[in-house]
Amino acid sequence: SDAYKLVSKKWKVKPTSIDLGDGVFIKEGDMAVMAGPCSIESEEQIVKVIDHLKENNIKIMRGGVYKPRSSPYAFRGLGIDGLKLWHKLASEAGIKIITEVMQVSQIEEMLDYVDVFQVGARNTQNFNLLDELGKVDKPVMIKRGISGTIEELLQSAEYVFSGGNEKLILCERGIRTYEKASRNTLDLNAVPILKDKSHLPVVVDPSHGIGIRKFVHQMALAGVMAGADGIIYEAHEIPEKAYSDGQQTLNFAQSAQLTSQIRQTFAMR
Ligand code: PEP
Ligand code: MN
């Protein structure tokens, strides 16, 4: 089909390697671990997460400062001031930042303070946002839409790539199905299919994928075995007190164990 072209392996055979600087990559043949809270909450929280990441040699911290919440009354993030503070603390610690951009107007103010822009599942088909991210010289990770197909994810990536930004990462984060026993249905089929169709690196998000803390571990390791180039998951010192997504967030002991097992599993893949 000609629904997409530039992101396909027919166009470019060599796998795309995302270089975040300082020896940090998201690429085939490597295993990028990205961990952190759903929401950036406070300076104290940022410092605790950074210490945890450093102890476990995790180089990329996730976290939202603009949160797409289903309810308008839920915590919606610390915004640009939170991002600036986070960036200062993270760069001092040698940690890279991945965070969600929700709208076009935020791109410019965020640009100097992020290492990877995340496009969230609710914005996968925000074509204006994708067009603008196509003009930016920063990596972009596009999450699969809530009810999005694999082809639609690739077409969204095509928007950014054809706009001139080839630094792209794809993320499987679960899709909405009839199944209600889990938050989403993590479609691990998407991993080998995306790897087969596209030269872009593929990341799995088991936290949003299953939405249940005690099962994040299994799904993360299943994602590694399915062929993911990276795993992104939620971690917080006290998940029960997290401002968002605590039910699917690992504590630091669980996160340390998971990261070590992700690396072991990848090494024997
Ligand atoms: C998140 O990463 O916290 C998030 C909101 O993810 P998604 O867009 O996949 O729901
Ligand atoms: Mn979340």
Automatic annotation (TrEMBL):
Positions of transmembrane segments: none
Residue intervals of the DAHP synthetase I/KDSA domain: 23-267
Highest taxon of the lineage: Bacteria
Keywords per UniProt: Transferase
Stated name of the protein: Bifunctional 3-deoxy-7-phosphoheptulonate synthase/chorismate mutase
Full-protein positions shown: 65 to 333 of 339
